[in-house]
User: Fold these one by one.
Assistant:
Number 1:
Amino acid sequence: MDLATHQRKLLGLFRSNYEVRQDDDAYIQRIARSKDLEEARGNIFLWRVWVLERTAPLTFNLLKRRHLLQETVCAFIKGHNISPFRETQAPAFLGALSGHHDSLTASVARFELALLKVKQGDPGFYVVRWEVEPHTILNSLARNLPLEDKIPEGAYEVHISRELPSQFQIVRVHGEGGPSLRDIEMDTEERMRKYPECRQDWPS
Amino acid sequence: MLVQTALSPTKFDKNASTFVAIGATYEGRDFDLLERMLPLVDYIEVTPETIAEVHDHEITLSDEVMTELKNIGKARQIVVHGVGLSIGSHEGWSPTYFRLLDDLLEQVDVAWHSEHLGYTKVDDQHLGIMLAMPKTEEVLDMVCERVNKIQQRYNLPFLLENIVHVIPDFPGDFSEARFLNALVDRTGCGLILDVYNLQCDAHNHGFDIPRFLNELQLTNVRELHVACGVEHNGFLLDVHSQLTRSSTVQLAQDVVRRSEGSAEVVVYEFMPEAVPGMGRDAIAEELGRLRVAFRN
């Protein structure tokens, strides 16, 4: 038994990316067929879920309510080398979801990641664009309430910075009662001048 | 042999058969929980990885939690129990773990430090779970060499814990107990015996606990862990999310009796994620029950 080979094959089995071969030893073949392996993969999923439920609650609740949690977390586990350090898991997860094909999921993940960063002292000024009204959704997710069936559509931005009261503010980009897109951009440019370290991580 | 530390805040009556100190896990930032636990415990177990934060892409210990630990250390003993060393990885252990441990030991006095007899990464790819190594001569040599290096690096007792087997054990050269006995004989390290892990292995894989305990040199056991998880799909899970079962406490009492005074502390382990579900009062009551079970 070569330890390196043994451990690499088990890693592959746990990540579901190793196909057992006929010349593999009897132990590897036995594990590959075992219910234990299936259950252990489920344990890994549960560990991730418990950590993310606590460290990324908004995105976690959104995925749960949209019945996307299992699929999304499983894809994350399979596709990422997830550090055992708990505090790194939420940023990695939220970063991965920031490019999600569903625009609401991407917006919530970007918002939560930016908020996490500024809470940890990041001096950046972040802008996250939304295609629906954010307040209703964020309120529901933060309070773990059901999402409303009909969420008002519109172009919004959520600004996140440690300089803001409550560390973020919601701005309607255009439409009745809101500033124009130009106003927002000027406001953003002003902040960028004031805080040269500021940055926008996500293009519109 | 272990260097005996004489820092215990309470005197232990070695003549009493199950008289040991009580400890609990604590990961910081939960003063309500800490306030309830402190009157009931002699030791606080801390895990460097769970009190670490990420700043500018670097993993460091939380200043906030370290301040808490310094205060706790004035009243109670602290023991360090890592999870990320990965002593059994073929390519070597995690250097990040040692950096955190160095930093922690510089700031806080600890009675001893410990890790798990397992591995969590392969070629620096994280498994997401901890696996047991094959109990072979090759692996025993590798682990002994690493334990010796750890003991040379730190002037503190070092303990290793039996882990739960999430998959059946590889048929190696040693039984579980004989491997642990040989490890201690060759290195002088101590053992943590997690009796709930034994129960999980018995439930999930038919592990023979009485035979294991008869074979294990129980005087090498310095610390015991008790915990409880849930049953799922017929498997008993090592998730540390419940109050202990009476059978777990009885098993721990049996080991303490047979350890001839070497066992010094029983630590109740639970995850911070489980605290809201279990309740802080219930955790305190659990520690009170353990205190009665092991301090009378």
Note: The CA atoms of residues 68 and 160 of chain A lie 26 Å apart.
Number 2:
Amino acid sequence: MSAVMSARGLTKRYGKSLALDGVDFDIPAGRIVGLIGPNGSGKTTTLKAALGLIPFEGSLTVLGHDPRTERDALMQDVCFIADVAILPRWLKVGDAIDFVAGVHPRFDRKKAERYLAITKLKPEMKVASMSKGMIVQLHLALVMAIDAKLLVLDEPTLGLDIMYRKQFYQNLLEDYFDENKTIVITTHQVEEVEHILTDLMFIREGRIVLAATMDEVGERYTEVMVAADKIAAANGLNPIDQRTVFGKSVMLFDGVARSQLATLGETRNPSVADLFVATMKGSYA
Amino acid sequence: MKTLNWMLRREFWEHKGSLFWAPVVVAAILLFITAASAGYGMLAHNVNVETMVNGRQVHITSFREMPAVMQQGVAQVAANSYLAAAAPLFFMMAFTVFFYCLSALYDERRDRSVLFWKSLPMSDQMTVLSKVLTAAVVAPVITMVTALVMSLALLLIMGAYLAFNGVNLFGLLLATPALYLAPLFLIGILPVYVLWALPTIGWLLMVSSWAKSKVFLWAIGVPLIALVIVKWVDFLITGNQGMNAGLTYFAKEVVNRGLGGLVPGIWFAFSDHTVTMRPGEHGVELGTVFMQSWHTLAAPGVWIGAAVGVAMIFVAIRMRRWRDEG
């Protein structure tokens, strides 16, 4: 299976500042990839480049197309939610469904109506009169009913309350995702997506600093609750991060055998959030 | 084709107020005023009062004494120029389409909904084309249909009023070919309108796709400032000799074509032809207007303008393709 998205030396400059600095990555089909990085790290720029929304340097292929020159062909198979609340205010729910059904050959009207049936949305409602959560529900109903090969979600749940967020990811996993589809998500709320991701990409200052499957991450990184008398020994193994929880030292190790670490104290898989914080240390310094 | 159809519908949904309701409401108001006046007239007749018209004592029922030839004349004038009553609708259309074009590619960037439209398989060419068609064809056709319905209703009111006063013109009216030809002439002028409107539509769409804010100021300000600069240059070159290099004239021509193209009939301002108005005889004959409108296409200016308009539409398409919404 060839890569759904493949970048080589992907570079984007905004004036003098370098938003993407020669990024290389490959995203295979059938994965759910979390593209995670602090503000201004180049997440959105990467996605915009992939969607053909901005010009860039280097090479980038998405589903075999160059997004710069073949955007119209690309959009037959790609869908994205760029941001919440970008549906135009004058749009009515019923018109929105009619419209997308009219212009998108891969839109399944029944599916969209099924999603809407479990919400409070009515065909006569206008976006202007809807709450942010409802707008996202509508947008989601439209997008999830499109049988796209690649779905790109840029901060899809920004500004939503926890109920909507949970429901969003549940629908995504249960009703939408299958082995023929690929999803790329960027978000700040790492904790909420970590259990649905199959792959992780950390981006920092325009560079990919970590690209691995969740399984690899689990093998590579270990968190240890170090016993008080083993701290010196633990420090000798070069932990990449260290913090104190209830008076106990918690250390994060990269590429140290788990059997070896087990002698220092209780081991476990680090959360993506902890890994993120450790990797991004000094980003804002 | 199917996609374009849906995109035109989308434009209509978004701008239903200015494209559809505005002409319909204005037409309804005009009709209401006319009907109310006629109704009042009829009531007044019932009371059978003498009235003063232009300082002359006229009896309301004097229509009865109208000679047959004169009746013929009235019917002719009415059949020829009943659509002229809808002129306010067409001028309003020039305004609404002007602002429609200005906001067409700007509003979607401002509310970021452009990102939603771009997430669907609709090319930028198709999107901009749907907006051009809405401005150049959909809006004028809606206005024409409204104008036709309103004008016919006005004719009906007028006829009823006259009939009430004992002069039945309906037979004469229905026998006048001009009555039926008028709508055909009106539709027949549409291609001329489109060609003359293209430079304005192109300019406004280009500004709309490019300006970060204050689209109106850019659209009007740039040409005006350009005009002032040209005048100044013109003065520097020739002012001392009291001669005119024609630069100012040329710039004015460009600006007028660029900003005024949406006004129906603007083409008469740029041609030697003037509409022959013979109020004494048959009113403004739409057939003559039609012929003279097509005649303006013989001058090269309109084609150059249309070509420049199309070029600016292409710039707008490129702009929409690569504009980064931040």
Note: Residues 32 and 79 of chain A are 14 Å apart (CA to CA).
Number 3:
Amino acid sequence: MPEKGGLVDSKKMRSKRHGPIRVTLPVSVASDLEKLERALANASRVVEERDGHSGWHGGFMQVREFVIDPASLEVTEAAYPQ
Amino acid sequence: MRLPEVGVGVTWFAGMEPMLQANAELVDVLEIEPQTLWRRQPHARTIAIDTAALEAVQRQQHAKLVHSVGLPVGGTVPPRADDVELLSTVALELETPWLSEHLSFNCVEDESGTWHTGSLLPPRQTLAGVEAAVASIHALSARVPVPVAIETGVSYLQPRGDELPDGEFVGRVAEAADCGILLDLHNVWTNHQNGRQPLGDYIDQLPLERVWELHVAGGYYHRGFWLHANSGEVPAEVLELAARIVPRLVNLKAIIFELFPSHIPQLGARMFQSQMDSLHRVWDRRGGTAVRKTCVRSDPPEPDPAPSPKEWERTLACLTVHKRCDSPLATELRKDRGMAVIREMVEKLRGSMVVRTLRLSSRLIILERGTAYLEQLLATFWRTYPPQAFALEEAEAFAAFLCEEKPYVPFLGEVLEYDRAVIAVALDGEERSIAFGADPLPLLRALGAGRRPTEITTGEFEIRLTPDLVNSQAVLPVM
């Protein structure tokens, strides 16, 4: 019998650092694992850069939205998240 | 019946355009499996034709032949009217001169309803079986706009003393239904290799003037059986058989090399060209004169021996999908070594549907718990959930199973939701959002690259999946 348990393992997680973040991902990128990997690497870099510059603390911020471009896979932060 | 000669060709798959351009002189015709153009609508019980996928086929300049793989006509359950309508539409859109289907069965009707067997299974080869198949072929041919040919099937079961020989069964069905024959030489050779009817006897029992089309393909040995697998190089003996028989096929109109796309890299471009060259040489041997001959026939017992075709189909299907069945026939069939091969092939197909559809979830399970654990989960799933005809349904069933089973796999719930959402957005073009309690960027990135996710930060995250131009076949494998 397979071992049963919760679907999420708290031991694998680091402590909470981020506030609400939304990433908009075109499905053409999501369905192509190579593109997905590149796009998410770009997104991680941009999120980290923004965090570093703003000294951001999630509790006081609104949702931040990062948008992935399906052609270039470049990531921009939306000025006014929807 | 006068049908056009369409020549030598290959099975179509999405994305093969560069291969066709590189081999423009070698490919005259594309064989299209219409079910690869069908999509089960998410959250609906209806199937629709993927217009973009259909148009991609229509753009090819080659002749097209429609070869159905989901509405077999060898059993007692005739093809569903809705499915036949879709098949008709594809036949008209692609202007196929004829269409073909398998002389097998894949559905069973019993007190629990109609259910899918997970694969094409061999029919009961008696006179009652002939009658059932003829009724199914008539039900199909009455509702499609072109003539129908039946494909000769493969069977891993040992031949039975109470049945008609393979070739005679096909011959009797084709003559009684007045239809064409798609002679799959690799299937016939596979049956011969595995101890069923000798090739020469099989051919002698066929009405060769009804053969409109030949299939050739590759396979491999597994557990002492030669498998029909469309897996690459055609065995030399099958090509030799084709060269010998083609001059006798006075109504031959096409030869198709069946090949699954996943085996193309292994086959290689040069070998593909060499195989197609060989098939053109075989094709050039056609044009023999008709020799009228009487097909060899046995003297089948009257009345028809038990089990009936219905009982045969139900028993074989139950054993294939692990449903309980305690009849004497079930006891007999369990002793047949071919039964394990049939079951294994169905399970391999089901497993590939899950792994290719729930891609990141499958990877996550393997990376966190190992391949053996995923196989263990799948084995439990196969015993509790019946097979589904479509990859999307099979994947949905496995996702439901995982939600019930709650295996210990970190982040599985969210990754599963993500996988399902990607498919749904690709299919219906509606935006979806998935909430994550852990940072999806390193999580999905690691899975996309085949790495085990580590040190994932918690927080409130959301992935918003938006529709854009995507080939739905890229996210959803066919049946």
Note: The longest strand of chain A covers residues 21-26.
